[in-house]
Amino acid sequence: MEFFDSHAHYNDEKFNKDRTEILKAIKQEGITNIIIAGYNIESSKKAIMIANEQEGLYATCGISPNDILEIGSVDENIEEIKKLCISSKKVVAVGEIGLDYYWNKENKTLQRQYFQKQIILANELQLPIVIHSRNAQMDTIQILQEIECERKGVFHCCQLNSQLVKSAIQLGYFISLAGACTFKNAKNANEIITQIPLNKLLIETDSPYLSPEPVRGTRNDSRNVKIIAKKIAEVKGKTLAEIANITCQNAKKLFLK
What we know:
The chain is an alpha/beta fold.
């Protein structure tokens, strides 16, 4: 049985002391593929560096809505992301990119500019996109309708919002579920899990954040992707092995083909 953690941040400083050891332990647990997500220029560089060191690790490069740079123009910063994307074959997507009106409400216009221009970059490079969308459902969907991403992509750590999931699937995007779907206060988690077709489903940890129940509050790592897969299997009436295989093949189809 193999698992594909489609979104993790081993480029985060929380792993600085034991990154090598953790990644070795994760591989021994059957997590054979991990995508390390960049969210600004420096974290994207680090994602590539880590991905280049080990088989089964991949990287994304992008500027997230919560990491918009105060220096340089939009075009200059996205040009830097482009250089990183083409610098390594381990880069499998542009991301994470998108909109966040929960943490940042004062720069919505700039967020939309970064999102739009990075979708255009993804089309230029023939890469899928990894979307961060929080409290920005309508604007996210509108931009994706206006600027089609040819390789599509995934709503990472997708908010448990039925209309967002419905709209994203209609547009051809994958939905990635993280630890939040296991939280005791996630009252609509089962409904959302049921709503997502198996052929559009991915799983992720978003490590080191969002540890699932029953280890919520601890530093997350990719071994916990099994807990998320188990939750999904229970709701969908599938075995853990079936969900592991389906989500692994879906991730490979999106990112590695």
